[in-house]
Specification:
With about 130 residues, the protein is mainly α. The protein has four helices and no strands. The two termini are about 25 Å apart. Keywords: Membrane, Transmembrane, Transmembrane helix.
């Protein structure tokens, strides 16, 4: 994973449009969940998750972006599992398994904030000294 810098993070307009579309997909998926539109809700999992994975891949060279986008993808997985389990009244059986992707996302972010970021700050301070 590449070193991070204090450079400005610029998002090309085309990429930003895809990120914004991702938000639309996610909102449609969750609205379908609220309205109990099972088929469309389940269909919307795929574009929502695929775009989340693509965003993570696209930002893989920026550790902060990669870790946060991986956590988002895992959140979508857990959220989708929960949605499907509620659609089919098996949430008591499936909900405990949702803890796995939610926890993996938290672990990734804990690694970033508690291990990676402090090490990077220490490297920067060492270089400056």
């Amino acid at each position: 994973m590449g070193e991070e810098s204090n450079d400005l993070y610029v998002i090309p307009a085309k990429f930003r449009k895809i990120e914004n579309l991702h938000i639309l997909f996610w909102l449609v998926k969750d609205l379908c969940w609220c309205l109990l539109f099972k088929p469309l809700g389940i269909i919307m999992i795929f574009p929502t998750l695929l775009v989340a994975i693509w965003i993570a891949w696209r930002n893989r060279h920026i550790v902060a972006e990669l870790t946060h986008n991986l956590a988002i993808a895992l959140w979508i997985v857990a959220n989708s599992m929960w949605m499907i389990s509620e659609f089919y009244n098996i949430d008591e059986k499936v909900r405990p398994y949702c803890i796995i992707p939610f926890s993996l996302g938290i672990l990734i972010l804990l690694y970033y904030y508690l291990v990676y970021s402090p090490l990077q700050r220490k490297k920067v301070r060492t270089k400056v000294s």
